[in-house]
Amino acid sequence: MDLKVRVWRGKEQGAFSAYEVRREESQTVLDVVVHIQRHLEPSLSYRYACRVGMCGSCAMTVNGVARWTCRTHVSKVVTGNALEIAPLPNFPVIKDLVTDMRDFFDKWARAKGQFKGTTTRHDDFARVEPTSKERRAASAGIECIGCGICHASCDVVTWRPNFLGPAALNRAWTLVNDVRDTQQGERLRAVAGDAGCHACHTQGSCTERCPKQLTPTAAIAGLKRLTAKAAARGEL
Amino acid sequence: MTTVATQAKLWYAMRISSMVLAVCVLVHIITVIYAVRGGLSAAEILGRTHGSWLFAAFYGVFVVACAVHVPIGLAAIASEWLGLRERTALVAAQIVGVAILLMGLRAVYGVVAG
To answer: Does the beta carbon of B11 lie under 8 angstroms from any beta carbon of chain A?
Structure first.
């Protein structure tokens, strides 16, 4: 039985267009979108690059849930034979399934998501004990691919558009736990407050939806503890 | 506009007050269930609470924890769901907080010393 696929066309204003796509074995949602663009709707805009869950560029809303489409099998998400594919929520739509990620990545920068150390290439490399608390906390969040699924799934981002969001805060938490980094005070100030970690209601949608099984909720909880204690000591 | 330090402190106050409330609610519910096993009249309640400083201290703490906890949460709801500006939401929430404090402490006074 063919798939009945509805795909969003337009920008913020637009409509779903319907297509019929042949059902294949081991078919991914990205396969469906690629088929539509190559054979049925050449002007359809969407993003992808690696097809293997590394680049984080193919995230879309599939039957109401934000997912990485290259690693999502149709069989896991199809309702009957219906598939509805839309751009990610909480992102401005540029065209069809392509969203504007600038604000999302600007938030990483605002959360002091850049590493800054003191050593140069001429110095010996730092030795960090792999089993130390900090290294384990950093390792837990470091595999983020920047797909934006957590940001799209977060109600607090919807309610507070200036909220830094789970991905930026998760990135900040990995650097808070990087013992080589020298911007710790500035970073805590950057991630505190109602535009930062303290706005999080711990609903856990980010952790539920993260395709890499990371736990931004735990990262944000860590930031809340550190920043609140710093505020209580008057260090924020 | 409150500073991030103030916002972080408010979150901390909410966290600490929620810990106090967790204990208070448990003690309160267990006490209620235990006390009403055979039925309980208003006169019997007042007979136990009248002049009880332990009761006054416990429910005094309960009321203060509510008065700290509730307004901070309400301010967040007001700004996120009703779209109120931060300052307006905080002022409205503070009014509710003061009302909870006054009514709660008056109730405690009523059953202990009134």
So the answer is: yes
pLDDT of residue A229: 85
What's the DSSP call for residue A166? H
Chain A interface includes B84 (CB < 8 A): no
pTM: 0.91
3-state secondary structure A47-108: CCCCCCCCCCCCEEEECCEEEEHHHCEHHHHCECCEEEEECCCCCCEEECCEECCHHHHHHH
Is ipTM strictly over 0.90? no
Top residue of A160, A198, A229 to mutate, by most chain B CBs within 10 Å, is A198
Chosen domain end from A45, A76, A99: A99
CA-based nearest distance A198→chain B, Å: 6
Report the CATH number that the domain containing residue B54 is assigned in CATH: 1.20.1300
* Number of domains within chain B: 1
Same domain, A90 and A161: no
Of residues B12, B76, B86, nearest to A228 (C-beta) = B12
Say if residue A226 is in the same domain as residue A212: yes
B52: domain range?
Answer: 4-112
In A, minimum Cα distance to B11 occurs at: A198
User: How many Cα atoms within 13 Å fall on the side-chain side of residue A15?
Assistant: 2
Are A148 and A83 within one domain?
Answer: no
Cα A227 to Cα A164: distance, rounded to the nearest angstrom: 15
How many residues are given for chain A? 236
Chain B's closest residue to A235, CA to CA, is: B5
Digit-coded pLDDT (tens) for A93-113: 999 999 999 999 999 999 999
Pairs across A and B, CB distance < 8 A:
48
- Residues A95 and A106 placed together within one structural domain of the fold: no
Asked whether residue A45 falls in the same domain as residue A125, the answer is no
